[in-house]
Amino acid sequence: MKINSKILIFFIMSLVFVSGCQKENKPTDPVKKLTDNTSDSSHDKNDENIGENGKNIANNDENDKNNSSNSNNDGKENSDLDNTNKTTSKSNEKLSAVDGAKIGSISSFVEDREIWKDFVDEKHIDAAKRAWLGIHVPRILLNSEDAKIANKEIDDLVKSIKDKYNTYKDDISFYDIGIYSSFSVYQDENVLSIMIESYDIWEGEFSKYFVYNFSLPDGKFIDDYELMKNIGVEKDEILGIIENSLKEDQDRLNTISSRDIKDYSYIYNPNNYTGLVLNDLWDNFKSKTRQIFLDEVGTPNFVFAKYDSVDARHCQPILKLKSDKLDKSSISNEYLKMARKLGINPNDEKYKAIIIKLGSCFDEESLNNTLAKLYVWSSIFADYEDPNMLVAMKETEGGSMPYLIGEECYLIIPKYKNASVSLKELEISEDGNLKEIDNFYLDSNSCSGATFICQNISDIAPNGKITIRYRDDILEFSPSISLKDGRLTLPEEVLDGEDILDWKNLMDMNTYSYTMFQIMSSIMHKG
Q1: CATH top class, domain 90-222
Q2: Basic and acidic residues bias: where (predicted)?
């Protein structure tokens, strides 16, 4: 009896083990949600046979038998087997890596055209074929009218590449032909997404990007909204995701390239262009198409290359999109906390910003005090981070060194975290009215988020105009000083935040941002 019990227990354990293995091996659906960090494991599932199950295999086998029986004596298939059926059948094939595409690309509908076979000289073949900085152009194998349209556009690209090669081939070095093209492919059971990048060093053009998104299995074009819906993003969420991703990317670039800048050249920081890029985005987003694609690992990317901001080097041509599901609010954290402290409903549509007058900066001691007040605000509301800066300055006559033309400093906290903040110089015209004048140091900059501003504020003629914009909502104003009590005179959309803290008891005149002090002092006393 003991031996039989052991055998029975062993038999039961074996059944449990086999059952567990079967559950672990069961295919799961591909990941369709946009997340903060795209998981590699979610994309490995694309290597499985999409739609693989016993029923599909049986149906495919039955279709093959029917196709064979319906063939006529000349071997021609029945005319009812149209292109859509062929596409459906091919979409059920096992996805495989696309040779020539960016590593990680998989598809059953795309192949490399290997165009170097047609016109590239033998001595340049190796350079044209290489995986990086080679010439790789896709052929779309979908049987649809839209795929034919896309392939025709790609034909034109191939002709352009060929013409440039023939024009410059005598100047080409052995290892570098100076003409490059690459492409990425992503495919799941619902969509096929392709992006092509092409550029050359001979004519100094910017990179060109071509995006093609198709629904499967019908092979029809889909727009950006349909593509994003496939990964769980609704139409009204897309613009906010682009804005957030842009700001995060600009912050990242600023940390890499500009963290040690301590003079007036801070105006070339990526953060000082973020507002300009946002304005460009809001002005043109609705009029452009084919702006989003899924790259080779399924991450959504936004093509900024179609915008003037890329030509001006204000942002990168391709922006990876990320979504923070824990922070969906469009209102900035700084504004939210300050509005609550001031007893104002943060969602009140009447208000667009909060402003704090910081002080003057006509010498280093006054600058000290001004930045000490700012440091108190930063430590309480912004986790010690310095705000962006827009400072009124001009070049010296006959030289290039700019100098400060403003003395009054204050802090702008826009309501919306992705709002742009700009500053324009003003002067009194002959008729006594204020007018805008050109100023390179202001016109080529626009920030986003909390911004330190230095200009002249007076009850008669301020020399600066602030513009706060969020999408189509634009607010322009010039703060002035009340002759009655010395406080700021502001439009009703802007809250005065002066009374939010007991500044005197919190300020330490020896504690302030060293970086901001160095930047401001570098342009003082130069007039």
Answers
A1: alpha beta
A2: 23-48
